Prior knowledge:
Layout: E1 2-4, H1 8-11, H2 14-24, H3 28-35, H4 43-61, H5 75-81, H6 90-109, H7 112-117, H8 119-122, H9 133-141, H10 154-184, E2 187-195, E3 198-204, E4 213-218, E5 224-229, H11 233-261, H12 265-290, E6 297-298, E7 304-309, H13 312-321, E8 328-332, E9 336-342, H14 349-363, E10 376-377, E11 382-386, H15 399-413, E12 418-422, H16 431-447, E13 451-455, H17 459-467, E14 470-479, E15 484-491, H18 499-505, H19 510-519, H20 522-608, H21 612-624, H22 634-642, E16 643-645, E17 655-658, E18 664-671, E19 674-679, E20 682-687, E21 691-696
Parallel strand pairs: 1-11, 6-10, 9-13, 9-14, 11-12, 12-13
Antiparallel strand pairs: 2-3, 3-5, 4-5, 7-8, 7-10, 14-15, 16-21, 17-18, 17-21, 18-19, 19-20
Amino acid sequence: MRLYPESALVQLEFDKIRQILQEHARTAYAKEKATNLRIHTRKEYIELELNQTHEYKLLQQQGQNFPNDFTHPFSKELKLLGIPGAMLSAEEFMLVRRLASNMGNIFRWFDAERRSAYPALAQVIDDLYYEKVIVELIDDVLDEYGVVKDNASDDLYKIRMSLFRKRNELRRMFEKVVAKLNKAGYTADIDESFSNGRRVVAVFSEHKRQVKGILHGESDSRKTAFIEPEETIELNNEVFSLESEEAREVNRILRELTARLSVYADLLKRYLQAAGEYDFIRAKAKLAIDMNGNLPNIVDKALIELKDAYHPLLLLYNKQSGKRTIPVTITLDEKKRILVISGPNAGGKTVSMKTIGLNQLMVQSGLLVPVSPVSQMGIFKQLFIHIGDTQSIEFELSTYSSHLLHMKHFIETANGKTLFFIDELGSGSDPNLGGAFAEVIMEELNRKHAMGIVTTHYLNLKVMANHVPGIINGAMAFDEKNLLPLYELKIGKPGSSYTFSIAERIGLPKQLIQKARNLVSEDHFKLDKLLNRTEQDLQHLSKEKRELDKLLKENARLKAEMEKVMDKERHRQQVELLKQQNRITEDRLAYLKDMERKLRQIVLDYKKTEKKEEVIKHLHGLLFKQKEQVVVNKLAKKVDSKYKELPSDITIGSLVKLKKNYQVGEVKEIRGKRAIVQIGVIPMNVDLADLVRVEKVETEGKN
């Protein structure tokens, strides 16, 4: 991305984002990459880095461990592998092993399922392969502590066996000499020590001439002398010689191992780079979690469509101090390219502008940004910014001259892929003349299809934004009653500077305020007052809208609860109805079984008796007198005790009884051959033929 001026990143505080990112990095590779964080202009690069950070962020939030734990600075040591005749130390070989094992863990972690779930992270190792021979070669030579194994070569094994025997022989001889000197009273409190790798005995200085051997030195107090006994000199020489042979053989083995691993030098460098890349992605994910960063939709055109966008640094600061941060919601596209923000000083105009700029720089650097995930962010190839006083003493430029030089560069180089930010456009000169130049500059930037934000107090720019296509007004909300900025950006209308309101609130003499008003043109004063009143009315409407939304949500909640209650009641009545039907069915089954038993008995009696007429009479009575009998269950008895049937027709308002289940209700409506009967809470649609009119029976003794 092309930036203007050179201090653009500092003005937007992007350098602070780099610093925080660097603190999250653990490897030298990631720290260097954070320090030189690139701002991309190609969509594929931006999306890849954003997706990698997003996937790692998901891993962190889900508590999953990504097996990248190699953080040692190792690039200089790896360069030795490519140099003929070079030799790595045992400690450096252990680092090589750790690096290779680390990459093996990463390859094993990316099974088929994880490669599908985290494709962007897997892309880091797409052109790599795991070479297990590296670990095997090192394990053949070094043990787990980084010591060359005895069986690394036949010569080393023989040397170490000889060394073991000579050291034991030396130990026994030395102990014998020390015991003899100790018995003679020559030895000091320290029986033995080492000098230049040779065993020496500590004797009192006054007895040093009585002990035969080589004097290696004396203590600082001159009370103790360190002597290599004559009896152990030859053994010490042999041990020293074997140790030298061992060191030469170990170096030969390590040099040979270095040569064998040199063919993997480039692969190991790529392993180290991949480990650093994953650490860099991890650092970006940590930063995203700290500032609630999300993945917006990236489009390859000039577009800003931010919803609930926060200033990243302000959000981090307020998060630590427990303060609330006000987000910005803004849309700039081909039809609305330039936003003119007006309003009182210290109202948040510059912060809103920096919020857009810093988030844009971050997203094009592959960093997740604190915006709603539904936001859309375009890609810009140029970013211009002009904030604050840029007076130059060195070049003898006034504030306004410097301002015009910046604007000259903006106009000459701006295009449809340019994002610009201008704080207080036209300031530093006569308001009328400066306002005129500001209007021309903004018109030219609009003509070149550049996209950006301008802050101003100039009335003519507010008027211009209201009627020129491509330019829109915006204002920072202000609480006129308490003289407090609300830090909320309102799109679509200009804002008042609240000059006279602030003067009145702080108690300036009324005659001075009135005098100032008289100096201002009547139209200008009326317009500022109108903007003031409009903004307060809109704030009032916004407050009422929030209250209405709250009431609507409460109404929806109550409606949902009522529906749950109604559903529960319907379910209860349905269950009760099924229970009643089951009871009736059971009574009918019992009746039918009893009838079957009686009929069978009648058949048997008919076959046995000669008095056929009596059996037929009994059968006739059983079959035809049932019409006069009522098969009554407990529910029927209960209903019949309270209600009596009426022969009259059913009308609206009548009490009726359902013939099937003996439930009683009131007729609310008659629709042809069906009626709507209210039974409890729920109305039921019932056939008139299944109903019988009833009335409540008066209880005896009732007053």
